[in-house]
């Protein structure tokens, strides 16, 4: 098969005649229609050029479209075609033009429209979330009346996946942050000769703030994203519908175990995370300020009153429930395509972390007089 | 040197996963312009062979040539060009779920970087018309399509770069008999219009009888026969015999149809 080529002949009356030869098709690996179009541009521009396609070995849709556009989307007696190729051009003539689908966009109205849609979408999310919380409460009442239906296995599995398996990573992260904070604070405190206050700072920060917040962020990233993606894929593959047809409530089997499992695990995890943060801070205090570990631990209960621990447990519980609910909420909204899956998983993690930090700020203000 | 007139040439292919041998010294030739069906029991390695042919996986041993070249030996650019010479229709369609029908078909055309948007639009509309879909379907997302439409859009995408060879994995799986018959008719007419070579895998006997010129029977880890459907009767292998029983009934039926309108 020869490549697509053309030659130009001068006609007796001064007009030009472009003769195409070879295979005008994408099958010819050497053919580049962008180049051919550029070479032919001068002839396309001249309305008196004659075109002879009778020597073309092969003409595919790509070549035909290139020529058709060059000819200004019409065909007359100047174009000499082989009979088998005319059908292709006739077909092209019937196809709808690009501008028939042009969508109105870019105007101020369109921008307002988008903002309005976003506003409505927010309420849509709110309603969906309330629905989720409502159906969860109903299921809770139901299993209180029918304790045999409590999904113990699933709760245990979620406790293990979201709680136990998160132990190493939460420990490592909070230990490192404890060390970093300890070193920074130690340098500042030494300037004032207030070395002993490192116990207050590390103790209060570790138990009241770092533990619950670090736990929530790590759990949102680890378990929250996993839950969203899992529920989403189960929706896409109709597994959730399969559950429903078996008469099994999806809220009871899928969402409730996640919420309960993580709510049980979260306060414990928060406590664990706090402990490692304090350990990190203790090490820093020993190395930088020479405060011994035994002294640190002796002094700790005097500055951190037990109510702080209660507060930390309560915070951990709240954050755990929030992260799980948000993860399930976004999971239930995933549509069956890859874009929606990635967008929802991202939204789930971002929303969970933002909400947790917002709620934490509210907690800090509301509880400012408790245990300080 | 490869022989002329062959679209695909499989020589001495072995496929092994650990101790499991899937293909044992398998040979197959597909001539240019013919429709070749691959049949075999479940798990006989049909789809694996198909994936070897299009270069998604590589056999443990042996060589596969498409249009006389071995894809694995080409450099990146040459391999890309060679891959544009065939189109593959996956079993589930494998449409890009985040893109509309239009964007799905336009995707390979854009990758070629030879056409402007207006030409791409015209080409996409042309491909949609080829597979008998309406222009308004172009703006739907794959999730909004029915099973038959997904197959058609996937076919349009496979045809976007005007391939010479079309590889179909279970083209009519999951379609109702009416739809699958229409789809078979569509592939037949496209094959005539565009001069395609077709390799396909199917479990559906109606599709097989309706479409194929030759059939390659995969059993005992190799091709035990590659011949026309009526010639299957002469193959002694039990799988081929069983298989032929089903085929011959349908062949008779189609023959009757062919004879009926003559008088």
Describe the structure.
The complex is a heterodimer of chains A (372) and B (263). With 372 residues, chain A is of the alpha/beta class. Chain A has 3 domains: 5-97, 2-Layer Sandwich (Transcription Regulator spoIIAA), CATH 3.30.750; 106-138; 151-366, no CATH class. Chain A has 12 helices and 5 strands. In chain A, strands 1, 2, 3, 4 and 5 form a 5-stranded mixed beta sheet that branches. In chain A, helix 7 (197-236) runs parallel beside helix 11, helix 7 (197-236) runs antiparallel to helix 12 (338-366) and helix 9 packs across helix 11. The longest helix of chain A is centred in the middle third of the chain and has 40 residues, at 197-236. With 263 residues, chain B is of the alpha/beta class. In chain B, the strands form 2 sheets. Chain B has a 6-stranded mixed beta sheet. In chain B, strands 2-1-4 form a 3-stranded antiparallel beta sheet, covered by helices on one side. The longest helix of chain B has 22 residues, at 238-259. Helix content of chain B is 39%, strand content 24%. Chain B has helices at 46-53, 76-83, 101-112, 117-130, 147-159, 177-194, 205-211, 238-259, and strands spanning 6-17, 20-31, 35-40, 61-66, 86-89, 165-169, 197-201, 214-219, 222-227. Chain B has a domain at 92-162. Chain B has 8 helices and 9 strands. In chain B, a hairpin with a 2-residue loop joins strand 8 and strand 9.
């Amino acid at each position: 098969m020869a490549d697509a080529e053309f030659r130009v002949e001068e006609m007796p009356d001064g007009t030009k005649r472009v003769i195409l030869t070879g295979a005008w098709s994408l099958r010819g690996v050497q053919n580049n229609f962008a180049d051919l179009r550029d070479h032919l541009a001068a002839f396309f521009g001249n309305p008196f050029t004659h075109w002879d396609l009778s020597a073309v070995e092969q003409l595919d849709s790509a070549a035909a479209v290139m020529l058709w556009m060059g000819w200004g989307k019409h065909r007359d007696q100047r174009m000499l075609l082989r009979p088998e190729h005319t059908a292709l051009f006739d077909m092209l003539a019937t196809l709808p033009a690009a501008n028939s689908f042009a969508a109105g966009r870019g105007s101020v109205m369109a921008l307002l429209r988008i903002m309005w849609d976003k506003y409505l979408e927010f309420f849509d999310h709110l309603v969906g979330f309330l629905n989720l919380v409502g159906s969860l409460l109903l299921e809770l009442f139901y299993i209180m009346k029918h304790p045999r239906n409590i999904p113990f296995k699933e709760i245990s599995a979620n406790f293990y996946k979201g709680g136990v398996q998160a132990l190493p990573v939460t420990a490592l992260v909070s230990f490192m942050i404890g060390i970093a904070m300890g070193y920074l604070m130690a340098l500042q405190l030494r300037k004032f000769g207030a070395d002993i206050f490192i116990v207050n700072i590390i103790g209060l920060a570790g138990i009241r703030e770092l533990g619950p917040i670090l736990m929530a962020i790590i759990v949102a990233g680890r378990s929250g994203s996993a839950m969203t993606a899992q529920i989403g894929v189960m929706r896409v593959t109709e597994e959730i519908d399969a559950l429903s047809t078996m008469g099994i409530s999806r809220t009871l089997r899928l969402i409730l175990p996640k919420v309960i499992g993580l709510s049980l695990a979260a306060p414990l995890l928060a406590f664990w995370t706090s402990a490692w943060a304090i350990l990190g801070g203790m090490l820093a205090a020993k190395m930088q300020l020479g405060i011994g570990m035994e002294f640190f631990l002796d002094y700790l209960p005097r500055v951190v009153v037990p109510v702080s621990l209660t507060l930390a447990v309560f915070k951990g519980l709240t954050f755990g429930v929030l992260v799980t609910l948000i993860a399930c909420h976004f999971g239930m909204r995933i549509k069956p395509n890859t874009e929606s899956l990635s967008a929802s998983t991202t939204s789930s993690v971002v929303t969970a972390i933002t909400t947790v930090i917002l709620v934490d700020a509210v907690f800090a203000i509301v509880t400012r007089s408790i245990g300080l | 040197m490869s022989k002329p007139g062959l679209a695909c040439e499989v020589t001495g292919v072995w496929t092994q996963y650990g101790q499991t041998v899937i293909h044992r010294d398998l040979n197959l030739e597909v001539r240019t312009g013919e429709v070749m069906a691959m049949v075999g029991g479940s798990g006989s390695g049909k789809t694996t062979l198909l994936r070897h042919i299009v270069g998604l996986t590589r056999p443990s041993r042996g060589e596969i040539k498409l249009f006389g070249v071995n894809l694995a030996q080409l450099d990146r650019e040459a391999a890309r060009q060679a891959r544009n010479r065939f189109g593959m229709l996956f079993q589930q369609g494998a449409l890009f779920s985040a893109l509309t029908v239009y964007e799905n078909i336009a995707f390979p055309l854009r990758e070629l970087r030879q056409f402007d948007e207006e030409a791409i639009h015209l080409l996409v509309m042309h491909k949609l018309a080829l597979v008998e879909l309406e222009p308004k379907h172009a703006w739907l997302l794959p999730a909004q399509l029915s099973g038959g439409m997904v197959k058609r859009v996937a076919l349009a995408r496979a045809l976007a770069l005007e391939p010479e060879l079309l590889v179909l994995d279970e083209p009519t799986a999951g379609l109702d008999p009416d739809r699958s018959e229409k789809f078979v008719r569509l592939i037949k007419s496209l094959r005539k219009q565009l001069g395609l070579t077709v390799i396909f895998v199917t479990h559906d006997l109606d599709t097989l009888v309706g479409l194929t010129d030759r059939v390659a029977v995969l059993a005992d880890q190799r091709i035990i026969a590659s011949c026309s459907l009526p010639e299957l009767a002469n193959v002694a292998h039990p799988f081929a015999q069983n298989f032929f029983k089903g085929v011959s009934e349908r062949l008779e039926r189609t023959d009757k149809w062919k004879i009926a309108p003559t008088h």
